[in-house]
Design a protein that fits this description.
About 25% of the residues lie in helices and about 25% in strands. By secondary structure, it is an alpha+beta fold. Among the domains are: about 90 residues, Rossmann fold, CATH 3.40.50.20; about 70 residues, 2-Layer Sandwich (Dna Ligase, domain 1); about 90 residues, Phosphoribosylglycinamide synthetase, C-terminal domain (Glycinamide Ribonucleotide Synthetase, Chain A, domain 4, Alpha-Beta Complex). The strands form 5 sheets. Strands 1, 2, 3, 4, 5, 10, 11, 16 and 17 form a 9-stranded mixed beta sheet that branches. Strands 12, 15, 18, 19, 22 and 23 form a 6-stranded antiparallel beta sheet that branches. Strands 6-9-7-8 form a 4-stranded antiparallel beta sheet, with helices on both faces. The longest helix has 21 residues. It binds adenosine monophosphate and glycine.
Length: about 425
Amino acid sequence: MRVLVLGSGGREHALCWKISQSPKLSQLFCAPGNPGTAHIATNIQVDLSNFESIKGVVIKYEIEMVVVGPEDPLVNGLKDFFAYDNQLNKILFVGPDKNGAQLEGSKDFAKNFMFKYGVPTAKFQTFTKENSDQAYDFLKTLSAPYVLKADGLAGGKGVLILDTIEEAYSQLKEILEGKFGSAGNRVVIEEYLAGIEMSLFVLTDGTDYILLPEAKDYKRVGESDTGLNTGGMGSVSPVPFADAEFMNRVDERVVKPTIIGIEKEKMDYSGFVFIGLMNCNGNPYVIEYNVRMGDPETQSVMPRIKSDFLEHLINASKKQLSGDSIDVYNHTQLTLVTVSGGYPQEFKKGYPIIGLEKLGASDYFVAGAKSNENNIVTNGGRVLNITASGNSIIEARERLYDLVNRVDYQDIYYRKDIGLDLI
Ligand code: AMP
Ligand code: GLY
């Protein structure tokens, strides 16, 4: 099978790494890819917002399967573009259609879906400029802290958690006035859920599904979960509190009704459902849906899958997941994101990365870096994803922090406490 992975981050490098191990693969392409994917795939320059240019690549390289890494092309209807094109509609596609992608593209849509299908989630109401006067009354029915969410895609910045009702009300007005652009034309206000978060990954064909290993993401830039929110500073899989009893509840109360909803809403959904869960005293609540894999969770999830991942993707995209099952390794996998100093605020790019030759091919994934003459240089906030396994979190942490000591670039920063809270 000739496979094209779309995207350019550490998530896509990890997807390529796992797919490249499949005996079913004949050739792997990544667009646009990065210096890490270049070792295992043919990188192709393409603008992911230009569907005609994606089509050009798919035809030129005789691609048989497309795997979409990030959410934007899905929310913008890439699957529908393939489905309505005579030259593309036979190509296997991993990712939902535009209707399904609304589960991530619109928080209001996702919340209504959860309520309709009985998926446990926080109480909510949606406000626009027209009814914002009523927001204060709704806020009064909740208790602090207050959660505000811009409805549309806001690059991970659209969620605010505020301590006072006054702040919440004034932020609501600011979002409705364009603080997050059109993503904030509607704002979801919801009840705050106290608990521990985890990321659940479901691969579905729209009717049947398999559960990939779960993971926990470390979102804040500072140790002990302090400081600004980021795209993710590290991840761990498995999550110790996700024991069989909890996962059983998750399956019954969250996954099954979600897949039933996907089927009933006639979504053309062959792909990933990434469910952000809150464990509230042993009961799962859904914080959000995403229609793709998580980053940096994928970097800890892929090394834990034993079975042929490409075969699972083929089954999902052919709508033949019934009877499929996944084999996983029992080890613990930890991933550490090294970032550019200053991230998630201002940072500089273009610093040479040294020491990568001291790492094995399975010890790291490349995120924000590019090739520059003979060097690989930093090219983003999140730069490298170092990853290590062990029989315990303690063992994996020892390996992880030994590995990260071998690499360097100017102003490198990373958290030293990945996994520590779970020991
Ligand atoms: P999201 O962009 O929906 O993932 O939200 C970003 C982060 O905000 C989540 O990962 C949670 O940590 C937090 N969050 C979102 N919704 C809630 C909620 N209802 N209660 C508590 N925390 C929340
Ligand atoms: N790590 C969270 C995300 O990918 O959205």
